[in-house]
Q: What sequence folds into this?
């Protein structure tokens, strides 16, 4: 069984300040983990993925996430927020292969204040 | 590669009509997922296929919904008859051995 918890449903940051979106997971296996972004009225775009290689994963648009097994966490960070980062972000866990059924978190809406 | 392709992008229909949504996978991918997204319930997995075989359809809301994968690159999701509560954005996603689901742009369905 696997599950994922996104700890914040809404996060608000000022433009130029750091972003932290939190995600904790539970899995019976060594999981694959992903972050997706969804801009308003758009589809979901893969930001980055962890599949048991380097624990610090770099993604698109300056985002990165660190897999911490001891804390069962996979938090998403970015040093400096841009207005274009305003969107909803989903943390996702899947089985080790990453190509079977996945479990989505409930999403975190990121607001960026000018 | 063109990515996952969905059609139509928008569909407006009347209650009771049949609706067919279409999805073309990324070449070489072997798993296909259908999702529904609404404001009330968020993103829900309806059904997924692996190598053309339905693996888990427990998310399909009721018998009015059916999905097929007639070949390795194409899938359809059919709603018959449609109801207003089926109004949502329907996404399909495909994945291959490298992992990570790639989503299509979605079909926005409105049932009047």
A:
């Amino acid at each position: 069984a696997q599950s994922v918890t996104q700890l914040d449903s809404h996060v608000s940051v000022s433009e130029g300040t750091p972003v932290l979106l939190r995600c904790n997971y539970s899995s019976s296996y060594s999981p694959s983990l992903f972050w997706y972004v969804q801009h308003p009225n758009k589809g979901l775009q893969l930001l980055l993925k962890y599949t048991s290689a380097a624990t610090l994963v770099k993604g698109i648009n300056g985002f990165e996430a660190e897999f911490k097994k001891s804390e069962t966490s996979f938090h998403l960070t970015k040093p400096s927020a841009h207005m274009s980062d305003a969107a909803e972000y989903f943390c996702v866990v899947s089985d080790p292969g990453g190509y079977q059924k996945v479990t989505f978190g409930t999403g975190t809406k990121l607001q960026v204040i000018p | 590669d063109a990515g996952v392709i969905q059609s139509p992008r928008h569909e407006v229909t009347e209650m009771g009509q049949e609706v067919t949504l279409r999805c073309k996978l990324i070449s070489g991918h072997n798993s296909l997922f259908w999702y529904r997204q609404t404001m009330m319930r968020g993103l829900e997995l309806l059904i997924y296929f692996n190598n053309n075989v339905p693996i888990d359809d427990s998310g399909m809301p009721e018998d009015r919904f059916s999905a097929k994968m007639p070949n390795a690159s194409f899938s359809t999701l059919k709603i018959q008859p449609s109801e207003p509560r089926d109004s949502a954005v329907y996404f399909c996603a495909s994945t291959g051995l490298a992992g990570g689901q790639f989503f299509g742009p979605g079909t926005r369905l409105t049932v009047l």
Q: What stands out?
A: Chain A has a mean pLDDT of 90. Chain A has no helices and twelve strands. Chain A touches chain B through 22 residues (CB under 8 Å).
